[in-house]
Design brief:
Layout: H1 3-13, E1 27-32, H2 36-47, E2 52-55, H3 82-96, H4 106-112, E3 121-122, E4 127-128, H5 133-147, E5 150-152, E6 163-166, E7 169-174, E8 180-181, E9 183-188, H6 194-198, E10 203-205, E11 248-249, E12 270-273, E13 279-280, H7 294-301, E14 313-317, E15 321-325, H8 341-364, H9 370-377, E16 381-382, E17 402-404, H10 412-415, E18 426-430, E19 434-436, E20 440-443, E21 449-452, E22 455-457, E23 462-465, E24 479-480, H11 489-495, H12 498-518, H13 527-536
Parallel strand pairs: 1-2, 1-9, 2-5, 9-24, 11-20
Antiparallel strand pairs: 3-4, 6-7, 7-8, 10-17, 12-15, 13-16, 14-15, 18-23, 19-22, 20-21
Helix pairs in contact: 2-5, 2-12, 3-5, 8-9, 12-13
Length: 543
């Protein structure tokens, strides 16, 4: 059965729940959001014998993990277990086949990636952490099909009256075309938290003040780090010092450590290749604006010896491809988390134009040093990736959007090394550094240009509490939120990694299935039963 026919069959069987009461739900578990977390949640629910539907807003599954972010952010590989480890194990097995290597050998690739991705693999666990997007999506789709998950593609929640809630339980959701879907349990695995928000669950966007959770790294953070100093750069369009360059704030909008509603920079994790036989040239965007890259140019020209790799990061991927990072568009995504679909689409286009324009600028603008232009000029888009989207990733990198506010909130104290406060009900582990990209560029009170918002603070493996993925009891009793989970901005900056999302997605589905079996709210799931099943399924709860 083709995907389109299956979608039509699923939609035809669904009832419009606002028009009539639903005696029996269409599904046991509805997973909203095609992220890697959503994929793992759907698979786990199905493997536990539940009827599961996964809803994707586009024609794909996997989110960032299959859309360019293919150099997995992971500090301690032994914190990743369960379905996530199974997925990365399938990646390992795929690349053992010599036919998987079209323009280099496995040995050549592993040598090239040695310093960038923690060796790229762990032979003792038969796991590989770096891969091609299309390969990963095919593996995820196979896992979904083998598990019997129903997938509905190219649909999303209606923008109003999307969720029906009765007595603290979601009874159904309505899609844009009016179709209703009902389930016993719901999992919001979207990057934006749209289902969570439409269900009336409390959340926050932006940064808390340090005082809220007695933190030290939260809130507004104008950067005075001499190793990241940009104060030598003029932020003005010309010597008249009247008009600032685009997306530069004229003054700080608050004091250090105070709250605001801004989010760290978004980007696209673009895949590039230097293989001429598989290359689509980078074209200048129709809405190209060189002024957007003026600050970058001034920093390049003002920093002797700066190389292309110091501007954007090329992490090697198999078959002469890259996971390309640091095409961050500072200050351009603040309205995205709560924006309408139309507003988000506009920002996505702006970020795409910015990314492609930046690559074109570095390869073609005569003011860029010749050596850098030559290096950038040998890269292009891979013809065999993202073929339905102009060879460009389909998922914008939403590094942070809404974050649920529940009875338990993961904070700085739960993730930093010093004086860590342990959690009581671990359902997964994190290990990546606290990592927030810049939020803004701002002219400080002395008239100097500063970066604002970054955090990079090393940590060691820590546990993530079950309370962080369930809402307050009085708000909703049949919803779990493994992506936009309950965490402060600081804690979220470490938790927000794709393998962590996968782990939490599996744990959320396990809890959902147990809640269905026990006939209880998600808040009342017996943790002893939950932890036992998680461990049986290979999850790692202690390092």
């Amino acid at each position: 059965m083709t995907r389109q026919i299956r979608n039509l069959a699923i939609l035809a069987l669904s009832s419009i729940f606002f028009a009539c009461s639903v005696e029996r739900p269409d599904y046991d578990i509805c997973v909203y959001g095609e992220s890697a977390s959503g994929v793992m949640a759907a698979i786990q629910g199905a493997r536990m014998g539940k009827e599961v539907v996964l809803i994707s807003k586009n024609a794909h599954v996997g989110g960032m993990a299959t859309s360019g972010l293919t150099a997995t952010d992971m500090n301690r590989h032994k914190t990743i277990g369960g379905l996530a480890a199974e997925f990365y194990g399938k990646i390992y097995e795929y690349y053992l086949n010599p036919d998987a290597w079209r323009c280099q050998t496995r040995e050549e690739f592993m040598k090239s990636t040695l310093k960038r991705t923690y060796t790229g693999k762990n032979d003792e666990r038969r796991i590989q952490w770096v891969y091609e997007s299309g390969v990963a999506e095919d593996i995820m789709k196979d896992m979904l099909e083998e598990s019997g998950v129903a997938v509905i593609y190219d649909t999303r929640l209606a923008e109003s009256d999307a969720v029906s809630v009765k007595d603290g339980k979601i009874t159904g959701i309505r899609m844009e075309d009016g179709t209703g879907i009902s389930a016993g349990m719901y999992i919001d695995a979207s990057y934006e938290g749209d289902l969570m928000a439409a269900s009336g669950v409390s959340y926050i966007v932006g940064r808390e003040a340090n005082s809220v959770y007695e933190e030290t790294l939260n809130g507004i953070r104008v950067n005075y780090d001499p190793t990241r100093d940009i104060s030598f750069i003029s932020p003005y369009l010309d010597d008249g010092r009247k008009e600032l360059l685009p997306y530069v704030d004229p003054a700080p909008w608050g004091r250090q450590g105070e709250a605001d509603g801004r989010t760290q920079a978004y980007c696209y994790r673009v895949t590039l290749t230097d293989d001429p036989s598989n290359m689509v040239p980078i074209q200048r965007p129709a809405d190209y604006n060189p002024a957007l890259y003026e600050l970058m140019l001034r920093e390049i020209l003002g920093t002797p010896g700066k190389e292309l790799k110091d501007v954007i990061t090329f992490t090697p991927m198999p078959n002469r491809k890259t996971d390309t990072n640091h095409l961050d568009f500072f200050g351009a995504s603040f309205g995205y988390p709560e924006g309408s679909y139309e507003e988000r689409a506009k920002m996505e286009k702006e970020h795409r134009d910015y990314a492609v324009g930046m690559l074109w600028f570095l390869a073609n603008d005569p003011r860029v040093p010749e050596e850098m232009r030559t290096e950038m000029g040998r890269w292009g888009f891979p013809a065999d990736e993202f073929e339905d989207n102009g060879h460009f990733p389909y998922q914008i990198y939403v590094r942070e959007a809404r974050r649920m506010v529940s009875d338990f909130v993961m904070t700085e104290k739960n993730v930093v090394k010093e004086d860590r406060v342990p959690v009581d009900r671990p359902v997964g582990m994190g290990s990546y550094a606290l990592d927030c990209h810049y939020v803004s560029r701002v002219v400080d009170n002395d008239g100097l240009l500063r970066n604002e918002g970054t955090i990079f603070w090393p940590t060691v493996p820590y546990q993530i509490d079950y309370g962080a993925i369930v809402p307050k009891r009085e708000e909703c009793t049949n919803l779990l939120v493994p992506v936009c989970l309950s965490a402060s901005h600081v804690a979220y900056s470490s938790i927000r990694m794709e393998p962590n999302y996968m782990v939490l997605g599996q744990s959320a589905a396990t809890a959902a299935a147990l809640a269905l079996d026990e006939g209880c709210p998600v808040q009342d799931v017996d943790y002893n039963l939950l932890s036992r099943r998680l461990l049986e399924d290979g999850q790692i709860l202690e390092y």
